[in-house]
Amino acid sequence: MLQPIVTYALIGITAVISIQAFNRRGMIEALKHSPYLETRNKQWYRLLTSGFVHGDWLHLLINMYVLYEFGRGIELNFLVLFGETAGRVIFLVMYLLTIAAGDFPTLIKHRDNPAYASIGASGAVSGVVFIFIMFYPWEILYLYGFLPIPALVGGIAYLVYSSWASKRQDTRIDHLAHFYGAVFGMAFITLLKPEVLQHFLQAATDLPF
């Protein structure tokens, strides 16, 4: 029986790094997404390492729970679409590229701002969730664990909110990473398998009620 071992490995590695960083501020400083340092000192690795470190338990648990819930199914779908070995590799590449893609807009926006920084896997997790939505647009998800909402409707609301929230000045959350991580995830699977987009468009217009 096929197992989503890449998803489990990503959760494990992220948990180990993040937990170590909880009490090691220098570790967070070394791994965080910092547009100023990335452009000034060419520390491009931060576009990737920032996705493996979190600020506290709640931040880590939310991201890893969502990755666990959605990543397992998407990884197994990749195995069906691309084959077992290639599917795992492509899933891993997708996840890593989506971390960087989510950080890229703030790299451009804040490259001259030494005070700006962000951490967390939210951008990559958003990409995984939106690939799930492309596969299962009318799947019922439970917001906050109890409020049922179709995946497509929740996804649209998420993108609208992320776009709006990214324009606020009073937040420390990188909403741009959420938005562009989601968009990149959809673009990634569409480029590799255009028929997934065709399926999504057909399913999205075929109302289940």
Please, could you describe this protein's structure?
The radius of gyration is 17 Å and the shape is globular. With 209 residues, the chain is mainly alpha-helical. A hairpin with a 3-residue loop joins strand 1 and strand 2. A two-stranded antiparallel ribbon has the order 1-2. The model has no long low-confidence stretch (mean pLDDT 93). Helices cover 70% and strands 4% of the residues.
Task: Give short descriptive properties of this protein.
two-stranded antiparallel ribbon; globular; 209 residues
Through-space gap between termini: 35 Å
SS elements, strand count: 2
String of helices and strands: HHHHHHHEEHHH
What is the general shape?
Answer: globular
Placed side by side, the strands forming the largest sheet appear as 1-2
Low-confidence stretches: none
Multimerization status: single chain
What is the arithmetic mean of pLDDT?
93
